[in-house]
Specification:
Radius of gyration: 19 Å
Largest sheet: 5 strands, parallel
Structural class: alpha/beta
Number of strands: 5
Mean pLDDT: 91
Low-confidence stretches: 3-7
Strand order of the largest sheet: 3-2-4-1-5
Length: 275
């Protein structure tokens, strides 16, 4: 029964994404979400193994990814970065002038590379930095004898990172990006938060200590604010490519599918296949 429910949800999600560009109305903006693993960041709940995105093989793969994404012909490229719009503008202008060498992180390797290929004058900063009070969930699990339950959730999340590492090793970045943007992978990541949501004192249905729902509420608030930044770019006729951490992809795709001003475009149509 759980398998059938999962398949139904995944198929519904795929259908919401699967609109071809020629089915989008002129009053809508087309939005494609590219969920990526963070190439160099260690600020996430869990982090995959190190990889050298500056190695020749990875550089060739990134060029193939940029070439494939260019066929979507985005008019705007939105990115996640811890610095602000002015710093993003400064770095990209320096890159166009030949005064900035791309770092290994994904905004440079995907966003800057693709923007220059398409002749864009700049990129759009859409990151919203919310809170992530995980330590309160951990403390609650310890205090209530649910450490094993919490660890099982983390172990499930880590198994996904193991699959990313395996896919990267066997199929390179193209295969990894395709996997990360499947409904299966996006839902698997999102389910981590649903597991954490259960860490609550429910003896009083309207009260008690509830660090799980507090954390997940903050996670949704963060993603709604990210999506508000995307909505500000999604004017009629625009084609917006959003390059963001894959953990956000399930919610951002869901929000896009619920907004009548947006026509969600499935990103798998614009990614090369792995080896």
């Amino acid at each position: 029964m759980r398998t059938l429910a999962y398949l139904g949800l995944a198929l519904a999600f795929m259908a919401s994404q699967a609109r071809a560009q020629d089915t989008c109305g002129p009053e809508q903006a087309q939005v494609a979400i590219l969920g990526v693993h963070h190439f160099v960041s260690t600020q996430n709940l869990l982090t995959q193994q190190d990889d050298d995105e500056l190695a020749p093989q990875r550089q060739a793969e990134l060029e193939a990814i940029a070439t494939a994404l260019a066929t979507f012909a985005p008019t705007r490229i939105a990115v996640e970065r811890p610095y602000d719009q002015s710093e993003l503008d400064r770095r990209y202008a320096a890159y166009l002038a030949g005064d900035y060498e791309l770092t290994a992180e994904e905004t440079d390797q995907i966003g800057f590379r693709l923007a220059r290929k398409l002749g864009h004058a700049g990129l759009d900063h859409v990151q919203y930095k919310g809170e992530f009070p995980l330590e309160q969930v951990v403390a609650f699990a310890d205090e209530t004898g649910r450490t094993g339950e919490y660890q099982a959730i983390i172990d499930d999340a880590r198994s996904m990172l193991d699959r990313i590492d395996e896919t990267l090793a066997s199929g390179g970045l193209p295969a990894t990006f395709r996997y990360l943007n499947t409904p299966e992978a996006m839902l698997a990541n999102h389910r981590t938060y649903m597991g954490l949501n259960a860490f609550a004192d429910t003896a009083d249905p309207s009260g008690g200590e509830r660090p799980g729902p507090d954390l997940v509420s903050e996670w949704y608030r963060t993603n709604l604010n990210i999506f508000a930044n995307i909505q500000a770019l999604a004017k009629p006729g625009e084609k917006v490519l959003v390059v963001y951490g894959q953990g956000h992809a399930w919610l951002l795709n869901a929000f896009a599918a619920e907004d009548p001003a947006i026509c969600p475009v499935g990103i798998l149509d614009y990614l090369p296949r792995g080896s």
